[in-house]
Amino acid sequence: MAEKDTRSVFLLSLGCPKNRVDSETMLGELLQRGVSLAPSPEAADLMVVNTCAFIGPAKEESIEAILELVRQKESTGGRLIVAGCLAQRYGSELLDEIPEIDQIIGTGGVGEVARAASSLSMESSTEALPRLFTPPLGQGDGAFGTRVRSTRGGSAYLKIADGCDNRCAFCVIPSIRGPQRSRPIEYLIEEASALIDGGVRELNLIAQDLSAYGRDLEKKPHLADLLDQLSGLDGLRWIRMLYAYPRPMPPRFFDVWGSRENILPYLDIPLQHASDRMLRLMRRGPDTAFVRRHLEDIRSRLADSHRDLFVRTTFLVGHPGETVDDFKLLRDFLEEMRFERVGVFVYSDEEGTPAYEMDAKVPPEVAEERRAELMALQQNISAAHQMTLVGSRMEVLVEGASEKSDMVLQGRHAGQAPEVDGVVYLEQGCAAPGDMVDVEIHRAHEYDLVGRILRVTSKAAEPVGTLFDSELPLIRAGATLRVDPSKVGR
Ligand code: SF4
Q: How far is the CA of 178 from the centre of ligand 1 (A)?
Protein backbone atom coordinates (compact mmCIF):
# COMPACT_ATOMS: atom_id res chain seq x y z
CA MET A 1 0.00 0.00 0.00
CA ALA A 2 1.28 3.48 -0.84
CA GLU A 3 2.47 5.50 2.14
CA LYS A 4 0.12 8.33 3.09
CA ASP A 5 1.10 11.93 3.26
CA THR A 6 -1.03 13.44 6.00
CA ARG A 7 -1.63 16.57 3.91
CA SER A 8 -2.36 14.94 0.58
CA VAL A 9 -5.55 14.99 -1.48
CA PHE A 10 -6.89 12.84 -4.28
CA LEU A 11 -9.37 14.71 -6.49
CA LEU A 12 -11.83 13.12 -8.88
CA SER A 13 -13.73 15.49 -11.16
CA LEU A 14 -16.88 14.39 -12.99
CA GLY A 15 -19.22 16.07 -15.44
CA CYS A 16 -19.02 19.03 -17.76
CA PRO A 17 -16.27 21.59 -18.45
CA LYS A 18 -17.93 24.02 -16.01
CA ASN A 19 -17.40 21.51 -13.23
CA ARG A 20 -13.89 20.90 -14.48
CA VAL A 21 -13.05 24.59 -14.07
CA ASP A 22 -14.36 24.39 -10.49
CA SER A 23 -12.08 21.39 -9.93
CA GLU A 24 -9.13 23.30 -11.35
CA THR A 25 -9.88 26.13 -8.94
CA MET A 26 -10.05 23.67 -6.04
CA LEU A 27 -6.70 22.24 -7.12
CA GLY A 28 -5.11 25.67 -7.27
CA GLU A 29 -6.32 26.57 -3.81
CA LEU A 30 -5.30 23.21 -2.37
CA LEU A 31 -1.78 23.65 -3.67
CA GLN A 32 -1.66 27.19 -2.36
CA ARG A 33 -2.50 25.90 1.11
CA GLY A 34 0.42 23.52 0.94
CA VAL A 35 -1.73 20.43 0.47
CA SER A 36 -0.03 17.98 -1.88
CA LEU A 37 -1.83 15.90 -4.49
CA ALA A 38 -1.94 12.13 -4.24
CA PRO A 39 -1.76 9.94 -7.37
CA SER A 40 -4.42 7.52 -6.13
CA PRO A 41 -7.10 7.39 -3.45
CA GLU A 42 -5.18 4.88 -1.35
CA ALA A 43 -2.22 7.24 -1.13
CA ALA A 44 -4.37 10.17 -0.01
CA ASP A 45 -5.20 11.48 3.42
CA LEU A 46 -8.30 13.06 1.92
CA MET A 47 -10.42 12.17 -1.12
CA VAL A 48 -12.57 14.78 -2.88
CA VAL A 49 -15.09 13.96 -5.59
CA ASN A 50 -16.59 16.87 -7.53
CA THR A 51 -19.89 15.43 -8.75
CA CYS A 52 -22.43 15.98 -11.52
CA ALA A 53 -26.23 15.63 -11.21
CA PHE A 54 -27.59 16.97 -14.48
CA ILE A 55 -29.35 13.81 -15.66
CA GLY A 56 -29.86 10.20 -14.52
CA PRO A 57 -26.66 8.67 -15.96
CA ALA A 58 -24.55 11.52 -14.51
CA LYS A 59 -26.09 10.95 -11.08
CA GLU A 60 -25.42 7.22 -11.35
CA GLU A 61 -21.80 7.84 -12.30
CA SER A 62 -21.40 10.19 -9.33
CA ILE A 63 -22.92 7.71 -6.88
CA GLU A 64 -20.71 4.92 -8.20
CA ALA A 65 -17.64 7.12 -7.77
CA ILE A 66 -18.64 7.98 -4.19
CA LEU A 67 -19.21 4.31 -3.34
CA GLU A 68 -15.85 3.39 -4.85
CA LEU A 69 -14.16 5.97 -2.63
CA VAL A 70 -16.15 4.75 0.39
CA ARG A 71 -14.78 1.23 -0.24
CA GLN A 72 -11.32 2.74 -0.49
CA LYS A 73 -11.83 4.58 2.77
CA GLU A 74 -12.88 1.35 4.49
CA SER A 75 -9.75 -0.44 3.36
CA THR A 76 -7.08 2.26 3.65
CA GLY A 77 -8.63 5.02 5.77
CA GLY A 78 -8.69 8.72 4.91
CA ARG A 79 -11.53 11.24 4.80
CA LEU A 80 -14.07 11.85 2.06
CA ILE A 81 -15.58 15.14 0.81
CA VAL A 82 -18.39 15.10 -1.76
CA ALA A 83 -18.68 18.40 -3.62
CA GLY A 84 -20.47 19.78 -6.68
CA CYS A 85 -23.91 19.38 -8.22
CA LEU A 86 -24.98 16.07 -6.63
CA ALA A 87 -23.88 17.44 -3.23
CA GLN A 88 -25.93 20.59 -3.84
CA ARG A 89 -29.01 18.70 -4.97
CA TYR A 90 -29.10 15.78 -2.56
CA GLY A 91 -26.76 16.80 0.28
CA SER A 92 -28.76 15.66 3.30
CA GLU A 93 -29.98 12.48 1.57
CA LEU A 94 -26.38 11.58 0.76
CA LEU A 95 -25.32 12.04 4.38
CA ASP A 96 -28.26 9.88 5.54
CA GLU A 97 -27.64 7.13 3.00
CA ILE A 98 -23.84 7.17 2.99
CA PRO A 99 -22.71 8.11 6.52
CA GLU A 100 -19.08 7.38 5.58
CA ILE A 101 -19.04 10.78 3.80
CA ASP A 102 -17.23 13.23 6.08
CA GLN A 103 -18.43 16.40 4.45
CA ILE A 104 -20.82 17.64 1.78
CA ILE A 105 -19.99 20.91 0.02
CA GLY A 106 -22.50 22.31 -2.48
CA THR A 107 -21.84 24.30 -5.65
CA GLY A 108 -22.01 27.53 -3.66
CA GLY A 109 -19.02 26.37 -1.61
CA VAL A 110 -16.42 25.57 -4.28
CA GLY A 111 -14.07 28.08 -2.70
CA GLU A 112 -14.38 26.31 0.64
CA VAL A 113 -13.17 22.88 -0.47
CA ALA A 114 -9.51 23.77 0.09
CA ARG A 115 -10.24 25.17 3.54
CA ALA A 116 -12.23 22.09 4.45
CA ALA A 117 -9.49 19.88 3.01
CA SER A 118 -6.76 21.48 5.02
CA SER A 119 -8.84 21.50 8.20
CA LEU A 120 -9.92 17.87 7.76
CA SER A 121 -6.35 16.81 7.28
CA MET A 122 -5.20 18.66 10.40
CA GLU A 123 -6.86 17.14 13.46
CA SER A 124 -6.45 20.20 15.66
CA SER A 125 -7.80 22.74 13.16
CA THR A 126 -10.47 25.17 14.31
CA GLU A 127 -11.50 25.93 10.73
CA ALA A 128 -13.85 22.99 10.23
CA LEU A 129 -17.00 23.65 8.21
CA PRO A 130 -20.36 22.06 9.09
CA ARG A 131 -20.78 18.51 7.77
CA LEU A 132 -23.42 19.71 5.34
CA PHE A 133 -22.25 22.95 3.72
CA THR A 134 -24.58 24.18 0.99
CA PRO A 135 -24.46 27.99 1.23
CA PRO A 136 -27.01 30.07 -0.72
CA LEU A 137 -26.34 30.12 -4.45
CA GLY A 138 -25.47 33.27 -6.26
CA GLN A 139 -22.72 34.61 -4.01
CA GLY A 140 -19.19 35.63 -4.92
CA ASP A 141 -17.99 38.43 -7.18
CA GLY A 142 -16.38 36.22 -9.84
CA ALA A 143 -12.86 37.36 -9.00
CA PHE A 144 -10.02 35.39 -10.53
CA GLY A 145 -8.70 32.86 -8.00
CA THR A 146 -5.79 30.47 -8.16
CA ARG A 147 -6.33 27.79 -10.77
CA VAL A 148 -4.36 24.81 -12.06
CA ARG A 149 -5.12 24.00 -15.66
CA SER A 150 -5.81 20.34 -16.43
CA THR A 151 -6.51 20.55 -20.16
CA ARG A 152 -4.03 19.55 -22.85
CA GLY A 153 -1.97 21.24 -25.49
CA GLY A 154 -2.32 24.95 -24.92
CA SER A 155 -6.09 24.85 -24.48
CA ALA A 156 -8.21 26.03 -21.55
CA TYR A 157 -11.79 26.74 -20.62
CA LEU A 158 -12.76 30.20 -19.44
CA LYS A 159 -15.96 30.19 -17.40
CA ILE A 160 -17.51 33.59 -18.03
CA ALA A 161 -20.68 33.09 -16.00
CA ASP A 162 -22.29 30.55 -13.74
CA GLY A 163 -25.97 29.77 -13.17
CA CYS A 164 -28.89 30.36 -15.51
CA ASP A 165 -31.96 32.61 -15.62
CA ASN A 166 -33.83 30.47 -18.15
CA ARG A 167 -36.34 27.95 -16.97
CA CYS A 168 -36.34 25.23 -19.60
CA ALA A 169 -38.96 22.69 -18.52
CA PHE A 170 -36.60 19.71 -18.42
CA CYS A 171 -33.60 21.29 -16.73
CA VAL A 172 -32.47 21.20 -13.09
CA ILE A 173 -29.43 23.41 -13.59
CA PRO A 174 -30.99 26.68 -12.33
CA SER A 175 -31.89 24.95 -9.04
CA ILE A 176 -28.39 23.49 -8.69
CA ARG A 177 -26.34 26.41 -9.93
CA GLY A 178 -28.62 29.33 -9.08
CA PRO A 179 -29.32 32.50 -11.07
CA GLN A 180 -26.86 33.74 -13.66
CA ARG A 181 -23.79 35.48 -12.28
CA SER A 182 -21.60 36.90 -15.04
CA ARG A 183 -17.99 37.54 -14.12
CA PRO A 184 -16.87 41.11 -14.75
CA ILE A 185 -14.73 41.62 -17.86
CA GLU A 186 -11.71 42.82 -15.86
CA TYR A 187 -11.55 39.54 -13.92
CA LEU A 188 -11.90 37.53 -17.11
CA ILE A 189 -9.13 39.47 -18.83
CA GLU A 190 -6.92 38.93 -15.78
CA GLU A 191 -7.60 35.19 -15.80
CA ALA A 192 -7.19 34.90 -19.58
CA SER A 193 -3.87 36.76 -19.40
CA ALA A 194 -2.60 34.39 -16.70
CA LEU A 195 -3.63 31.40 -18.80
CA ILE A 196 -1.88 32.84 -21.87
CA ASP A 197 1.25 33.43 -19.77
CA GLY A 198 1.05 29.74 -18.85
CA GLY A 199 1.11 28.68 -22.51
CA VAL A 200 -2.56 28.77 -23.49
CA ARG A 201 -3.32 29.52 -27.18
CA GLU A 202 -6.99 28.56 -27.21
CA LEU A 203 -9.72 29.74 -24.85
CA ASN A 204 -13.07 27.97 -24.90
CA LEU A 205 -15.65 30.31 -23.42
CA ILE A 206 -18.22 28.49 -21.32
CA ALA A 207 -21.31 29.36 -19.28
CA GLN A 208 -24.76 27.85 -18.90
CA ASP A 209 -26.06 30.55 -21.27
CA LEU A 210 -23.16 32.25 -23.04
CA SER A 211 -25.27 34.63 -25.12
CA ALA A 212 -26.89 36.11 -21.96
CA TYR A 213 -23.48 37.15 -20.64
CA GLY A 214 -23.45 40.48 -18.80
CA ARG A 215 -27.20 41.03 -18.33
CA ASP A 216 -26.90 40.69 -14.57
CA LEU A 217 -23.91 43.03 -14.20
CA GLU A 218 -24.39 46.66 -13.28
CA LYS A 219 -23.00 48.11 -16.52
CA LYS A 220 -24.60 45.36 -18.63
CA PRO A 221 -21.61 44.55 -20.84
CA HIS A 222 -22.46 42.37 -23.82
CA LEU A 223 -20.65 39.24 -24.96
CA ALA A 224 -19.47 41.45 -27.84
CA ASP A 225 -17.59 43.68 -25.37
CA LEU A 226 -15.89 40.69 -23.79
CA LEU A 227 -14.93 39.27 -27.20
CA ASP A 228 -13.64 42.66 -28.25
CA GLN A 229 -11.24 42.81 -25.30
CA LEU A 230 -10.26 39.14 -25.24
CA SER A 231 -9.44 39.09 -28.94
CA GLY A 232 -6.93 41.89 -28.39
CA LEU A 233 -4.81 39.83 -25.97
CA ASP A 234 -1.34 39.09 -27.33
CA GLY A 235 -0.67 35.41 -27.94
CA LEU A 236 -4.30 34.30 -27.90
CA ARG A 237 -4.78 32.44 -31.17
CA TRP A 238 -8.23 30.88 -30.82
CA ILE A 239 -11.38 31.96 -28.99
CA ARG A 240 -14.27 29.52 -29.20
CA MET A 241 -17.87 30.06 -28.10
CA LEU A 242 -19.65 27.13 -26.42
CA TYR A 243 -23.21 26.88 -25.02
CA ALA A 244 -24.66 29.91 -26.83
CA TYR A 245 -28.44 29.80 -26.28
CA PRO A 246 -30.18 30.95 -29.49
CA ARG A 247 -31.30 34.55 -29.12
CA PRO A 248 -31.04 37.74 -31.20
CA MET A 249 -27.62 39.37 -31.01
CA PRO A 250 -26.84 43.02 -31.81
CA PRO A 251 -24.97 43.99 -35.01
CA ARG A 252 -21.81 44.86 -33.06
CA PHE A 253 -21.55 41.23 -31.90
CA PHE A 254 -21.30 40.17 -35.56
CA ASP A 255 -18.97 43.07 -36.34
CA VAL A 256 -16.52 41.96 -33.66
CA TRP A 257 -16.82 38.28 -34.56
CA GLY A 258 -16.41 38.89 -38.28
CA SER A 259 -13.45 41.23 -37.94
CA ARG A 260 -11.23 39.29 -35.51
CA GLU A 261 -9.38 36.33 -36.90
CA ASN A 262 -8.81 34.76 -33.51
CA ILE A 263 -12.55 34.43 -32.81
CA LEU A 264 -13.17 31.09 -34.43
CA PRO A 265 -15.95 30.48 -36.97
CA TYR A 266 -17.41 27.95 -34.56
CA LEU A 267 -20.68 28.15 -32.69
CA ASP A 268 -22.11 25.72 -30.20
CA ILE A 269 -25.81 26.57 -30.14
CA PRO A 270 -28.07 24.11 -28.27
CA LEU A 271 -31.41 23.96 -30.12
CA GLN A 272 -33.08 21.03 -28.29
CA HIS A 273 -35.89 20.52 -30.84
CA ALA A 274 -37.28 21.60 -34.20
CA SER A 275 -41.00 21.24 -33.52
CA ASP A 276 -42.43 24.56 -32.34
CA ARG A 277 -44.99 22.70 -30.28
CA MET A 278 -42.16 20.89 -28.47
CA LEU A 279 -40.13 24.08 -28.06
CA ARG A 280 -43.14 25.64 -26.31
CA LEU A 281 -43.57 22.59 -24.09
CA MET A 282 -39.86 22.73 -23.29
CA ARG A 283 -40.28 26.45 -22.44
CA ARG A 284 -37.57 27.44 -24.86
CA GLY A 285 -37.64 30.98 -26.20
CA PRO A 286 -37.10 31.08 -29.95
CA ASP A 287 -39.10 29.18 -32.53
CA THR A 288 -37.69 27.29 -35.49
CA ALA A 289 -38.26 30.16 -37.94
CA PHE A 290 -36.01 32.36 -35.79
CA VAL A 291 -33.36 29.65 -35.58
CA ARG A 292 -33.29 29.30 -39.38
CA ARG A 293 -32.94 33.06 -39.89
CA HIS A 294 -30.35 33.35 -37.13
CA LEU A 295 -28.11 30.61 -38.53
CA GLU A 296 -28.44 31.87 -42.11
CA ASP A 297 -27.53 35.33 -40.91
CA ILE A 298 -24.44 34.12 -39.04
CA ARG A 299 -23.26 31.98 -41.95
CA SER A 300 -23.60 34.81 -44.45
CA ARG A 301 -21.88 37.34 -42.18
CA LEU A 302 -18.92 35.02 -41.66
CA ALA A 303 -18.83 34.24 -45.38
CA ASP A 304 -18.20 37.99 -45.85
CA SER A 305 -14.91 37.44 -44.05
CA HIS A 306 -14.28 34.26 -46.10
CA ARG A 307 -14.81 31.85 -43.28
CA ASP A 308 -17.02 28.76 -43.17
CA LEU A 309 -18.98 28.37 -39.98
CA PHE A 310 -18.88 25.11 -38.01
CA VAL A 311 -22.09 24.67 -36.05
CA ARG A 312 -22.47 22.26 -33.15
CA THR A 313 -25.89 21.74 -31.68
CA THR A 314 -27.65 19.41 -29.27
CA PHE A 315 -31.14 17.96 -29.40
CA LEU A 316 -33.24 16.35 -26.72
CA VAL A 317 -35.53 13.46 -27.67
CA GLY A 318 -38.23 11.76 -25.62
CA HIS A 319 -39.36 14.90 -23.76
CA PRO A 320 -42.93 14.48 -22.41
CA GLY A 321 -45.44 15.17 -25.15
CA GLU A 322 -43.11 14.38 -28.07
CA THR A 323 -45.21 12.65 -30.74
CA VAL A 324 -44.17 10.73 -33.82
CA ASP A 325 -44.94 13.86 -35.88
CA ASP A 326 -42.76 16.05 -33.64
CA PHE A 327 -39.93 13.60 -34.00
CA LYS A 328 -40.38 13.53 -37.77
CA LEU A 329 -40.11 17.32 -37.88
CA LEU A 330 -36.87 17.09 -35.93
CA ARG A 331 -35.46 14.39 -38.20
CA ASP A 332 -36.36 16.40 -41.33
CA PHE A 333 -34.80 19.52 -39.83
CA LEU A 334 -31.58 17.65 -39.07
CA GLU A 335 -31.48 16.32 -42.62
CA GLU A 336 -32.14 19.75 -44.09
CA MET A 337 -29.76 21.81 -41.93
CA ARG A 338 -26.76 19.49 -42.27
CA PHE A 339 -25.06 20.69 -39.11
CA GLU A 340 -21.38 19.90 -38.86
CA ARG A 341 -21.66 18.56 -35.29
CA VAL A 342 -24.68 17.19 -33.44
CA GLY A 343 -25.19 15.61 -30.03
CA VAL A 344 -28.51 13.91 -29.20
CA PHE A 345 -29.60 13.32 -25.62
CA VAL A 346 -32.42 11.27 -24.21
CA TYR A 347 -34.81 13.03 -21.83
CA SER A 348 -34.18 12.26 -18.18
CA ASP A 349 -37.17 12.60 -15.83
CA GLU A 350 -35.83 14.86 -13.07
CA GLU A 351 -37.94 15.64 -10.03
CA GLY A 352 -38.38 19.32 -9.33
CA THR A 353 -38.63 20.24 -13.02
CA PRO A 354 -41.90 21.24 -14.79
CA ALA A 355 -41.41 18.40 -17.29
CA TYR A 356 -41.46 15.90 -14.41
CA GLU A 357 -45.07 16.88 -13.74
CA MET A 358 -46.14 16.57 -17.39
CA ASP A 359 -48.26 13.75 -18.76
CA ALA A 360 -47.67 11.97 -22.07
CA LYS A 361 -44.29 10.58 -21.04
CA VAL A 362 -42.39 8.88 -23.86
CA PRO A 363 -41.27 5.31 -23.04
CA PRO A 364 -37.47 5.25 -22.53
CA GLU A 365 -36.96 2.59 -25.21
CA VAL A 366 -38.80 4.77 -27.76
CA ALA A 367 -36.67 7.76 -26.78
CA GLU A 368 -33.52 5.66 -27.16
CA GLU A 369 -34.63 4.49 -30.62
CA ARG A 370 -35.17 8.12 -31.64
CA ARG A 371 -31.74 9.07 -30.36
CA ALA A 372 -30.12 6.20 -32.28
CA GLU A 373 -32.00 7.13 -35.47
CA LEU A 374 -30.86 10.75 -35.33
CA MET A 375 -27.27 9.79 -34.57
CA ALA A 376 -27.21 7.35 -37.50
CA LEU A 377 -28.50 10.10 -39.78
CA GLN A 378 -25.96 12.57 -38.44
CA GLN A 379 -23.14 10.08 -38.89
CA ASN A 380 -23.76 10.13 -42.65
CA ILE A 381 -24.03 13.93 -42.72
CA SER A 382 -20.82 14.24 -40.72
CA ALA A 383 -18.99 11.73 -42.95
CA ALA A 384 -20.02 13.66 -46.09
CA HIS A 385 -18.83 16.90 -44.54
CA GLN A 386 -15.54 15.36 -43.45
CA MET A 387 -14.89 14.12 -47.00
CA THR A 388 -14.97 17.71 -48.28
CA LEU A 389 -11.93 18.40 -46.12
CA VAL A 390 -9.71 15.72 -47.67
CA GLY A 391 -6.91 17.39 -49.64
CA SER A 392 -7.30 20.69 -47.82
CA ARG A 393 -4.72 22.44 -45.65
CA MET A 394 -5.62 23.70 -42.23
CA GLU A 395 -4.11 25.03 -39.04
CA VAL A 396 -4.13 22.54 -36.17
CA LEU A 397 -3.43 23.02 -32.47
CA VAL A 398 -1.36 20.05 -31.29
CA GLU A 399 -2.70 18.38 -28.15
CA GLY A 400 0.02 15.75 -27.68
CA ALA A 401 0.29 11.99 -28.08
CA SER A 402 -2.93 10.45 -29.35
CA GLU A 403 -5.01 8.32 -27.05
CA LYS A 404 -4.80 5.51 -29.58
CA SER A 405 -1.04 5.30 -29.87
CA ASP A 406 1.98 7.08 -28.40
CA MET A 407 3.45 6.97 -31.92
CA VAL A 408 0.80 9.30 -33.36
CA LEU A 409 0.13 12.91 -32.39
CA GLN A 410 -3.33 14.39 -32.25
CA GLY A 411 -4.63 17.92 -32.49
CA ARG A 412 -7.73 19.87 -33.42
CA HIS A 413 -8.60 22.32 -36.17
CA ALA A 414 -10.77 25.41 -35.74
CA GLY A 415 -13.95 23.38 -36.28
CA GLN A 416 -13.21 20.87 -33.53
CA ALA A 417 -13.95 21.75 -29.91
CA PRO A 418 -12.10 19.82 -27.22
CA GLU A 419 -13.63 16.62 -25.89
CA VAL A 420 -16.95 16.80 -27.76
CA ASP A 421 -15.80 16.86 -31.42
CA GLY A 422 -13.36 14.68 -33.32
CA VAL A 423 -9.61 15.21 -33.63
CA VAL A 424 -6.98 15.34 -36.36
CA TYR A 425 -4.50 12.48 -36.14
CA LEU A 426 -1.06 13.60 -37.29
CA GLU A 427 0.71 10.64 -38.87
CA GLN A 428 3.81 12.41 -40.13
CA GLY A 429 5.90 15.24 -38.78
CA CYS A 430 7.07 16.44 -35.39
CA ALA A 431 5.52 18.96 -33.05
CA ALA A 432 5.13 19.66 -29.35
CA PRO A 433 1.90 20.06 -27.37
CA GLY A 434 0.67 23.60 -27.80
CA ASP A 435 2.34 24.11 -31.21
CA MET A 436 0.19 25.36 -34.09
CA VAL A 437 0.94 23.42 -37.27
CA ASP A 438 -0.01 23.58 -40.91
CA VAL A 439 -1.56 20.22 -41.86
CA GLU A 440 -2.56 18.56 -45.09
CA ILE A 441 -5.55 16.25 -44.64
CA HIS A 442 -5.35 12.97 -46.51
CA ARG A 443 -8.03 10.80 -44.91
CA ALA A 444 -11.39 11.30 -43.21
CA HIS A 445 -13.46 9.20 -40.83
CA GLU A 446 -16.97 10.07 -39.65
CA TYR A 447 -15.70 12.33 -36.89
CA ASP A 448 -11.88 12.33 -37.08
CA LEU A 449 -9.42 13.40 -39.75
CA VAL A 450 -5.93 12.14 -40.57
CA GLY A 451 -3.17 14.32 -41.98
CA ARG A 452 0.51 15.15 -42.08
CA ILE A 453 2.31 18.14 -40.67
CA LEU A 454 3.72 20.40 -43.37
CA ARG A 455 5.35 22.88 -40.98
CA VAL A 456 5.12 24.34 -37.53
CA THR A 457 3.56 27.77 -37.91
CA SER A 458 3.87 28.86 -34.29
CA LYS A 459 5.84 27.22 -31.49
CA ALA A 460 4.17 26.69 -28.12
CA ALA A 461 5.02 29.36 -25.62
CA GLU A 462 7.02 28.09 -22.63
CA PRO A 463 6.10 26.86 -20.15
CA VAL A 464 3.00 24.86 -21.03
CA GLY A 465 1.98 24.45 -17.41
CA THR A 466 -0.65 21.76 -17.33
CA LEU A 467 -1.27 18.44 -15.70
CA PHE A 468 -1.56 16.42 -18.84
CA ASP A 469 0.49 17.77 -21.70
CA SER A 470 2.44 14.64 -22.54
CA GLU A 471 1.43 11.11 -21.68
CA LEU A 472 -2.17 10.73 -20.70
CA PRO A 473 -2.58 9.29 -17.23
CA LEU A 474 -6.18 10.39 -17.09
CA ILE A 475 -9.49 8.75 -17.75
CA ARG A 476 -11.23 10.86 -20.35
CA ALA A 477 -14.57 9.17 -20.79
CA GLY A 478 -17.31 11.55 -19.73
CA ALA A 479 -14.66 14.15 -19.02
CA THR A 480 -13.64 12.32 -15.89
CA LEU A 481 -10.39 13.67 -14.65
CA ARG A 482 -7.96 11.95 -12.33
CA VAL A 483 -5.22 14.15 -11.10
CA ASP A 484 -1.67 12.93 -11.39
CA PRO A 485 0.51 15.11 -9.14
CA SER A 486 3.66 14.24 -11.07
CA LYS A 487 2.28 16.38 -13.92
CA VAL A 488 1.55 19.45 -11.83
CA GLY A 489 3.38 22.65 -12.56
CA ARG A 490 5.35 21.43 -15.57
S1 SF4 B 1 -30.60 27.39 -20.90
FE2 SF4 B 1 -32.18 25.91 -20.29
S3 SF4 B 1 -31.15 23.91 -20.57
FE4 SF4 B 1 -29.52 25.44 -20.50
S5 SF4 B 1 -28.88 25.51 -18.32
FE6 SF4 B 1 -30.43 27.14 -18.64
S7 SF4 B 1 -32.37 26.18 -18.04
FE8 SF4 B 1 -30.89 24.51 -18.39
A: 11
